[in-house]
Amino acid sequence: MANLSIENLLCCPICKNRLTFDSEVFSCTFCGEKFTKNKNIYDFQVQVDDQDKNHKEKFEQLILNNKSSEWFTQVFNCLSPVEYFEALFDPHLKEINEYNKKFISEGINIGERYDNLIFHQSKNDLHIISAMRYISKIKNKNIALDIGCGTLRVTKALLKMGFEQVIAIDFLPELMSYGYEKLSDEDKKRVFLVKADVRFLPFQESSVDLIFALELFEHINAPKLMLLDLKRILNNNGMGIMNTWNASEIRHRKIIRQEGKSYYKNGFFYKLYELKELKKILKEVNVDFSVRLHGIYFGAYLSNLLGNGFAKIIAFLDYLFSFFLPKFLFHYLLFVFKKENIVYKK
Question: pTM for this structure?
Answer without folding.
Answer: 0.91
